[in-house]
Amino acid sequence: DVKVTQSSRYLVKRTGEKVFLECVQDMDHENMFWYRQDPGLGLRLIYFSYDVKMKEKGDIPEGYSVSREKKERFSLILESASTNQTSMYLCASSPPHLMGAEAFFGQGTRLTVV
Amino acid sequence: LAKTTQPISMDSYEGQEVNITCSHNNIATNDYITWYQQFPSQGPRFIIQGYKTKVTNEVASLFIPADRKSSTLSLPRVSLSDTAVYYCLVGDRGYSTLTFGKGTMLLVSP
After folding, report:
1. Neighbouring C-alpha atoms within 13 Å toward the C-beta of A3
2. Which residue in A79, B10, B22, B103 could disulfide with B85, CB within 3.0 to 4.6 Å?
3. Confidence check: pLDDT of A107 > 70
4. Which of A31, A43, A54, A91 to mutate to test the interface with B (most CBs of B within 10 A)?
5. Which of A35, A90, A96 sits opposite B96 (nearest CB)?
6. How much is the pLDDT for B54?
């Protein structure tokens, strides 16, 4: 069974902390994505990566960075967490060409910044 | 990526057929139409994808008229467990990201 695994389901962090959200996929997919989902705003793309060490900004990259040192792992980093980064974070992976293929999502990490 | 328009919400009862229509007036020749389903507190899940006419799988059917300016996701005989948000996405094979709209919240009642 294909799987995208996010390291935590729930996380509570303090304002100003450095936060790491980890995502691992076992499908040898080239593409990996980080989204955040907020009520009324839907899913918004933060960053994506189409290869090891490659990254591209999505729609809302401010306040975030990413790391992809290995093909199977894509990390989202909040350099200095703020309360407006409280959200559900979703990781996904896919083959290179999305149309004609499907993306697989993890279960999500609900991050609360206090 | 072609912009899509879907109803914000729909209500149905168990056992009924549900049709959710998505408008994509500026769809390009090479664009495919894909639908995802998201349950509360879970990530979206791929349901079905098509280019033209009709596609059917074990979960749903996708109807695409000849002009491809809209598409309809059909869920036969829904159950309570089909309560979810359904997203319509349009893009071509070369596109490497997924852009989600706000989706359609389907509520199935007993």
Report:
1. 6
2. B103
3. yes
4. A43
5. A96
6. 95
**Cross-strand partners of B90:** B33
Give, for B3, the enclosing helix (H) or strand (E): none
Nearest CA to B4 out of B89, B72, B66 is that of B89
Single-letter residue type at B67? D
Q: Using one digit for the tens of pLDDT, what is the confidence trace for B55-85?
A: 999 999 999 999 999 999 999 999 999 999 9
State which H helix or E strand residue A91 sits in: strand A87-94
Probe site for chain B from A30, A94, A99 (most B CB atoms < 10 A) = A99
Strand partners, A73: A24, A70
Tokens, residue B10: 């729909």
Angle at A91 between CA A78 and CA A50, to 5 degrees: 95
From CA B22, how far away is CA A29, in angstroms rounded? 29
Beta strands A109-113 and A42-49: pairing type? unpaired
Q: What does pLDDT average to over chain B? A: 90
8 A C-beta contact, residue A21 and residue A107: no
The pair of three-digit structure tokens given for residue A33, joined into one six-digit string: 């994505």
The position carrying tokens 């408008």 is: B23
Question: Measured between CA atoms, how close is B43 to chain A, in angstroms?
Answer: 5
- Contacting residues for A61 by C-beta, under 8 A, at least 6 apart: A46, A47
